[in-house]
Amino acid sequence: MRKRLLAPLFLSAAFLAACGGGDKKAEETKSEDHAAADNSMVKPQESGEELMNGSDCKTCHKPDTKLVGPSFKDIAAKYPLNDENVKMLADKIINGGSGNWGETPMAPHSNFTENDGKEIAKHILETYAAK
Fold first, then answer.
1. CB count in 10 Å sphere of residue 81
2. Any binding-site annotation on 57?
3. pLDDT tens across the length of the chain (131 residues)
4. Angle at Cα 28 formed by Cα 23 and Cα 31, nearest 5°?
5. Is the pTM higher than 0.70?
6. Contact 72, 64 (CB under 8 A)
7. Per the record's keyword annotation, is DNA-binding included, yes or no (predicted)?
8. How far apart are CA 86 and CA 83, in angstroms?
């Protein structure tokens, strides 16, 4: 009886912990004049892989195994690399969603910009597509 109660409790706690991570700290901004004068202070765009590694993506998604969410290979197999799919997946990454892969909702990642979401989506579709 006790084991039956502990398993769902543990899974619920793990799911809630996974949904809370990945926040980026707000970056301080400089005036446009100052930033234009000092281009060395401009932060280079992070790649999709770097953004994924700095977030909680791999808590729910694995390269070739379904976990909480679909595997990256399953995502790449379902959605060919094109602008429409990249935008749609970026929106799902940023705003969350459910229904495409079952009832478990994907947590929103509102800390990502639209460009960040697109970089992650492109990385998944390029890296994990069947070759």
1. 13
2. yes
3. 555 554 554 444 444 445 554 444 444 444 444 444 444 455 567 899 999 999 999 999 999 999 999 999 999 999 999 999 999 999 999 999 988 888 899 999 999 999 999 999 999 999 999 87
4. 145
5. no
6. yes
7. no
8. 5
Can you tell me the distance from the alpha carbon of 17 to that of 20, in angstroms, rounded to the nearest whole number?
5
Taking only Cα atoms into account, the Rg of the chain, rounded to an integer number of angstroms, comes to 18
| Rounded-to-integer distance, Cα 62 and Cα 2, Å | 31
Is there a binding annotation on residue 61? yes
Contact by Cβ (8 Å): 71, 64: yes
How far apart are alpha carbons 67 and 63 in whole angstroms?
A: 10
CB 95 within 8 A of CB 121: no
The arrangement of secondary structure in 46-131, i.e. its CATH architecture, is Orthogonal Bundle (1.10)
| 52 annotated as belonging to a binding site for a ligand | no
User: Which tokens in the block code for residue 77?
Assistant: 């197999």
